[in-house]
Amino acid sequence: MTGKGELIVFCGGAEVEREEALKMHEKGIPVYPTPERGVRALAQFFAHDERKPGAAEAHGGADDEGPRLRLMPAPAAVRLLRSYRIPAVTAAPAKGAAEAVRLARRFTRPVALKVVSPDISHKTDVGGVVLGVEPPGVKRAWEAMMATIRKKAPGARIEGATLSPMAKPGGVEVILGVARDPQYGATMLFGLGGIFAEIYKDVQLCLLPAGPGEFERMIAGIRGYPILAGARGRAPKDVAALVDVMSKLAKIAEDYPGFDQIDLNPVIVYDKGVSVVDYRILHK
């Protein structure tokens, strides 16, 4: 091994493969049972460039190699996910601070403010997310958030923000995503979620279509699986509900071939049930 990043294809038989694959997973090395699946998964790492947030983060835009991608508005994304019985948190749109104050009073919990912009996908990176805001503080939080965004992404078009009730505590954050490659098709990603998902990189990949058994293996394959299984006397989380969401997400990817990327991050897994807190759908 070179130390520069490895991908392993292991064909040693079921029992040996399980034992050796676990050791490699502990080192952060992905393992695949066949050469075809390994190559296809590897292709996904080169299919999409990471882009830094900035003045014109119009995803898929101004690219001579493919069509411009559009970010689906959060309310539309919620309607789509709920139509597949995926429990997505409400995203109420507001054009200005006064409207946001009125909307915040409708919720029984503190709210999350999230900027709405076709040029900003990773909202946290530019200060476009403010959490745990009580109704009396919404106006001040709105103004401070917008001021920060103007500094960090000065050219971005701002259409307002959405308000969502804060999720109840006690769950484990995971990430679910689907990326589509013109040659290899759709691939699902699963791992520990939240804002540190890209840092920990504790993920598993799966080519679609796939079924519940494959999704269960993905969940059990991450290094953080004991957190979901109930480590150190804690109650196990509702893995069955998580598998159900993964199955429905795979169905969306099948039904909508024009969807290039679907990111659900975080998905909060509770002792009973799950909640999709944030969502990002890029389509042609």
Description:
The protein is α+β, with helices and mostly antiparallel strands. The protein has two domains: 80-88 and 169-284, ATP-grasp fold, B domain (D-amino Acid Aminotransferase, Chain A, domain 1, 2-Layer Sandwich), CATH 3.30.470; 90-165, Dna Ligase, domain 1, CATH 3.30.1490. It contains nine helices and 13 strands. The chain has helices at 14-26, 35-45, 74-83, 97-104, 138-152, 197-200, 212-221, 225-229, 239-255, and strands spanning 8-9, 31-32, 70-71, 92-94, 111-116, 129-133, 160-165, 172-181, 185-192, 203-207, 259-269, 274-276, 279-283. The strands form three sheets. Strands 3, 8, 9, 10, 11, 12 and 13 form a seven-stranded antiparallel beta sheet that branches. A four-stranded antiparallel beta sheet has the order 4-7-5-6, covered by helices on one side. Strand 11 and strand 12 (274-276) form a beta hairpin. Helix 7 (212-221) crosses helix 9. The radius of gyration is 20 Å and the shape is globular.
Instruction: Please tell me how large the radius of gyration is.
Output: 20 Å
Helicity range = 25-40%
If classified by CATH, what would the architecture of the largest domain be? 2-Layer Sandwich
Total domain units: 2
CATH third-level topology of the largest domain: D-amino Acid Aminotransferase, Chain A, domain 1
Rounded to the nearest angstrom, the distance between the terminal CA atoms is 39 Å
Topology, number of strands: 13
Q: What sequence of helices (H) and strands (E) makes up the elements?
A: EHEHEHEHEEHEEEHEHHHEEE
Unreliable segments (pLDDT under 50, ≥5 consecutive)? 12-16, 46-66
CATH class of the largest domain: Alpha Beta
Q: Considering the protein shown, what is the CATH homologous superfamily of the largest domain?
A: ATP-grasp fold, B domain
β-sheet strand percentage: 15-25%
